[in-house]
Amino acid sequence: MKNTFKLMIAVGATLLLAACGNNIQPSKTSYGQHGLVAILKGSASGAKTVSYKADDESGKVTIHGGTYAITLPVDDKTQTVKLTAGNASKSVKIKAAQTLGDYKTSAAKYNQAIVGMALPKDVQKLAGTVRTYNKQKMATMSVPERMAAMQQIQTVQNAMKQATVATKDQQLPATAKAGITQIAKVGQVKVRANVAESGKLIGYAVIVPTKAMKNKTESQKFGLTLGLLGNSVGVNTKKVMKQFQKQTKGQNKSQTTIKTIKNNGVKFNIGFSTSDLYIYITK
Q1: Closest to 41 in 3D by CA, of 71, 69, 63
Q2: Helix (H, G, I), strand (E, B) or coil at 34
Q3: What is the separation of C-alpha 250 from the centre of its chain, rounded to a whole number of angstroms?
Q4: How many helices (H) and strands (E) does the chain have?
Q5: pTM of the predicted model, to two decimals?
Q6: Where does the UniProt annotation place the signal sequence (predicted)?
Q7: Other C-beta atoms lying within 10 Å of the C-beta of residue 152
Q8: d(CA 190, CA 194)
Q9: Hey, which bits of the chain come out as E strands?
Q10: How confident is the model over 109-145, as pLDDT tens digits?
């Protein structure tokens, strides 16, 4: 009985010491947006990993040198994340991000532009004329004029159908899964989107190898993709591209970021790794 009592005391003391040895200290109590994500950092001891549990995600990361870093997608609502290292735990917040509107709306505008550019030049011009044909205008036409207008409308509709099929691989998906997913690959240019559960668009990430920018064809694909994405969220594409070219031209090799470009309330944050160029389009 005495031995059993001593064993219980020993076990209890061991557990107490283990609990005292566990510690986790986040660097902040609330984290903001960094591109499409929030980066939760801090120190931890007494364990090999830090576990995390957010509203929609959970997992764990390894502790290196007494510190940890966790990357989680931001959302359009505030998130609470519970962090655990052994028996120690803390809760932190991820601030709600501003959105760029509905993802479906942005994708539809992007795809409409892709299809429009695939139309023959004469049909593009005709499409501009057809867009002016409202009910009021059609009502003032003579019968021959109305018949001609109907024929023009049919011509444009047929061409649009053909162009839609021909450019299917270049279009964005009409809907996207919640979280961060790759939604397009144009040549070597990758496009990722962070979409909230509500369907709101948190932002886009455009990623391209820096060496690809030296290739004229790949550089054009990058410019076109970036421009159309910007246009789909209400940006003046020409102004943004002009600023982008000006800043990257003067960039030195040691820089990993350049000044944020802003247009119509939309931010373009640009960064470089050893191999890739990253552009984040967010609010």
Answers
A1: 69
A2: strand
A3: 26
A4: 7, 14
A5: 0.83
A6: 1-18
A7: 16
A8: 14
A9: 23-26, 30-31, 37-45, 49-53, 58-62, 67-73, 79-85, 88-94, 179-186, 189-195, 201-209, 257-263, 266-272, 276-282
A10: 999 999 999 999 999 999 999 999 988 998 899 999 8
User: Cα-flanking dihedrals φ and ψ of residue 147, to 5°?
Assistant: -65, -40
Q: How high is the pLDDT of residue 245?
A: 81
Give phi and psi for 211, each to the nearest 5.
-70, -25
For tokens 């219980």, the residue is 8
Neighbours of 56 (CB within 10 A): 13
63 token code pair: 């502790």
CB atoms within 10 A of CB 118: 18
* The two three-digit tokens of residue 236, written as one number: 């003046």
The whole-angstrom separation of Cα 37 and Cα 179 is 10
Amino acid at 20: C
Strand-pair partners of 42: 26, 68
Share of the chain above pLDDT 90, in %: 75
What's the CA gap between 58 and 81, in Å, rounded?
A: 9
In whole angstroms, give the CA distance from residue 2 to residue 169.
Answer: 77
- Distance between the two ends of the chain, CA-based, in angstroms? 68
Identity of the amino acid at 50: V
The residues near 168 (Cβ < 8 Å, ≥ 6 apart) are: none
SS3 content of the chain, % helix, strand, coil (to 5): 40, 35, 25
